[in-house]
Specification:
36% of the residues lie in helices and 14% in strands. It is an alpha/beta fold. It is globular, with a radius of gyration of 20 Å. This is CRAL-TRIO domain-containing protein.
């Protein structure tokens, strides 16, 4: 989320209370909370994209408003700059066939990647934004080496790559697709959340760097820099607050590297918490029941586990095909055929060499914003998997 004030780009040290973490003003500059000038600029941006052939207003639109607005916020409301970033992203997505990647990625490969990057806890913060946990110590040199060798041998990923984006990073972007296509739409349509008129386009992250040596940080430097640079370029404004926990004494050296990977807006969202600040600060933004126990909360969630779903999610969903929770692998939401008052969650990916396409559950569509064309490719669009019906694919084991 873009701050309305400037930032020096220096590391943030939180004092003793949650109130010490500055509010960035959510949901200012988001749908439903635009100023007159911002709304006019946004309409001008959409018209400009339409003239350039990158956007069709529909109905249904080729890209949802929330996605387009992320690019405009990221470029400080300068239409030409936002257009350039959006155009570059659209070109990058098509060159790497991101739609096909997400729909056909092997479930085991997806799971291997999920265990190396931020993981959704199954919960949200107090604003309804999905809460992720990232424990850096699991990314040791042996694990990363094995991962990179496996991705290098993945012929399917190689066939999708533009030749410039390494296959190991394409797997990472399947996880970003999961954030924007699955976690955020789900959280957007949960009942009783604040600001229901505003779709969720952000994530809140707890980053645990405890137990990580300077040498390990150094070994991860190139890997994390490449991932951060591409994510900032092609998935702008998907991060909200980032709470760094367990920072060692030498972390100021590491911070010198990290802050150069991000733009100043992203840097302004990163807060380093001392051990005495963790519980009180997190409780200012996250209900105690949704904070993992290791950080003073009540949530049973450990690294590598599947999300510990909020009971509200379990109760809200109408589960189908034997599912009682979300399965492993990629999923997305789309309007339920014949009933646009509901959304269906569709599990995709490849299992045992066979593509899956199965309905997991349906939920009520609470957010009444724009819908995108299910057959339109593009960042934020809801994909259609080869035109196949649900009945044409076998249901996986839940």
């Amino acid at each position: 989320m873009t701050s309305r004030s400037s930032t020096s780009g220096s590391v943030h040290k939180v004092d003793t209370t949650a109130s010490a973490v500055p509010s960035i003003g959510y949901p200012n500059q988001h749908l439903g909370h635009l100023t007159t000038q911002e709304a006019e600029t946004f309409e001008g941006f959409k018209l400009f994209l339409q003239e350039k052939g990158l956007y069709q207003p529909g109905p249904p639109a080729s890209h949802d408003d929330a996605t387009l607005l992320r690019f405009l916020r990221a470029r400080r409301w300068v239409i030409q700059d936002a257009y350039q970033q959006f155009a570059d992203t659209e070109k990058w997505r098509k060159a790497n066939n991101l739609e096909n990647l997400y729909n056909t990625i092997d479930l085991d490969a997806y799971e291997q990647s999920r265990r190396l990057y931020p993981q959704w806890t199954g919960r949200t913060d107090k604003r309804g934004i999905p809460l992720y946990l990232f424990e850096i110590r699991h990314l040791d040199s042996k694990t990363i080496s094995t991962y990179e060798k496996d991705t290098a041998k993945d012929k399917h990923l190689a066939s999708l790559s533009d030749g410039q984006t390494p296959p190991k990073l394409l797997r990472l972007f399947a996880l970003y697709e999961n954030l924007t296509r699955f976690a955020q739409p789900l959280c957007t349509n949960l009942p009783n959340r604040p600001f229901p008129e505003t779709p969720i386009t952000l994530s809140t992250n707890i980053v645990d760097v405890s137990g990580v040596s300077l040498r390990q940080f150094w070994n991860l430097k190139a890997h994390m820099q490449a991932a951060s640079t591409l994510a900032t370029a092609h998935y702008p404004e998907t991060l909200d607050r980032i709470f760094i926990i367990g920072a060692p004494m030498f972390f100021s050296t590491v911070w010198g590297w990290i802050k150069r990977w991000f733009d100043p807006i992203t840097v302004s969202k990163i807060f380093i918490l001392g051990s005495h600040e963790v519980k009180s600060t997190l409780e200012g933004f996250i209900e105690t029941r949704n904070i993992p126990r290791q950080y003073g909360g009540e949530l049973d969630f450990n690294w590598g586990e599947m999300p510990n779903l909020d009971p509200l999610i379990v109760e809200t969903a109408s589960w189908e095909n034997g599912f009682t929770a979300f399965p492993k692998g990629p999923m997305y939401w789309r309007p339920l055929a014949g009933d646009e008052g509901r959304l269906e969650c569709v599990a995709v990916g490849t299992e045992g060499g066979k593509e899956r396409l199965v309905r997991v559950c349906t939920i009520q569509r609470i957010y009444q914003g724009d819908l995108v064309d299910a057959k339109t490719e593009g960042n934020g669009a809801v994909p259609d998997v080869g035109g196949l019906s649900l009945e044409e694919k076998a249901a996986p084991t839940a």
